[in-house]
Design brief:
By secondary structure, this protein is α+β, with helices and mostly antiparallel strands. The protein folds into two domains: 55 residues; 151 residues, Glucose Permease (Domain IIA). Helix content is 21%, strand content 36%. The chain has three helices and 16 strands. The longest helix has 21 residues. It catalyses: a 1,2-diacyl-sn-glycero-3-phospho-L-serine + H(+) = a 1,2-diacyl-sn-glycero-3-phosphoethanolamine + CO2. GO terms for molecular function: phosphatidylserine decarboxylase activity.
Length: 219
C-alpha cells in the first residue's frame, strides 16, 4: 500500500499541526501527565485517520470490453431509472456509490473510450445521500464513449465533508478502464448513468471496490 499524491500536502499540514500542539502541551502543561497522554493519543489517532484517507492499496483490477467496472469504493445506495438532465436529457439507469470517510477515495474509469464531455460545477455541500446532491452540490460530469458507440456518464459529487474534487481528464482524452480519473477528498458519492436495459450486476447496499467490482454488463 502507498499514499496517494493528493494526500502529501494534507499529511504534511497534519504533521505540522500535531507537532505544534504537542510542543505547546509539553511546554505549558508538562506537569499534567494525564493531559499530555490524552494529547499524545489524540495526535496518534488523528495521524492514522489522515493516512488512511489517502491510502492507495495494491489491487488486481478487473477488465472486460463489455463490462462497466465500479469507479469507487463504497456502498451502492441507488439503482433506479431516472431522467439525466445535463447531457443525455432522457431516461437512464442510475447506479450510485456512497463513499464514506473510511473508504479509498480514488476514482477509476469504469470503461475504456474517449471523453466526449466534461464539465465542473461549483455548488453546495449537502450530505451525499441527499437526492438534491446530484444536482446542487459541487460536482464533475464526465461522459466516455465506448468503441461500440455506447456512452456512459459518471459524476463525482462532493458531500458534507468532501471539500475538494480532483480530476485528471479533459474532453478528447483517450481513457483506459480502471485507470485513475480523479479523487474526492474525504469521501462522498459517484453516480453512474447507463443505458436503460443494461444488466446491473450489483444490489442495493452492496459493498463494492473501485476497479474490482463489476457494476454492469453492456448489451
Amino acid at each position: 500500500m502507498t499514499i496517494h499524491k493528493e494526500g502529501y500536502t494534507t499529511i504534511a499540514l497534519s504533521v505540522l499541526f500535531i507537532f505544534v500542539i504537542n510542543a505547546l502541551v509539553d511546554y505549558k502543561y508538562y506537569d499534567i501527565t494525564w493531559l499530555r497522554w490524552a494529547v499524545y493519543i489524540f495526535s496518534f489517532a488523528l495521524f492514522i485517520i489522515v493516512l488512511q484517507f489517502f491510502r492507495n492499496p495494491s489491487r488486481t483490477f478487473s477488465a472486460g470490453e463489455n463490462l462497466v467496472i465500479c469507479p469507487a469504493d463504497g456502498k451502492v445506495v441507488v439503482i433506479e431509472e431516472t431522467t439525466e438532465s445535463e447531457y443525455f436529457k432522457d431516461k437512464r439507469l442510475q447506479v450510485s456509490i456512497f463513499m464514506s470517510p473510511v473508504n479509498v477515495h480514488i476514482n477509476r474509469n469504469p470503461i475504456s473510450g474517449v471523453v466526449k464531455f466534461f464539465k465542473y460545477h461549483p455548488g453546495k455541500y449537502l450530505a451525499a445521500w441527499n437526492p438534491k446532491s446530484s444536482t446542487e452540490n459541487e460536482r464533475t460530469t464526465t461522459v466516455v464513449e465506448h468503441k461500440t458507440g455506447v456512452q456512459i456518464l459518471f459524476r463525482q459529487i462532493a458531500g458534507a465533508l468532501a471539500r475538494r474534487i480532483v480530476w485528471y481528464i479533459k474532453e478528447g482524452d483517450q481513457v483506459i478502464q480502471t485507470e485513475q480519473f480523479g479523487f474526492i477528498k474525504f469521501g462522498s458519492r459517484v453516480d453512474v448513468f447507463l443505458p436503460v436495459g443494461t444488466k446491473v450486476n450489483v444490489e442495493l447496499n452492496q459493498v463494492v471496490k473501485g476497479g474490482i467490482t463489476t457494476l454492469a454488463t453492456l448489451s
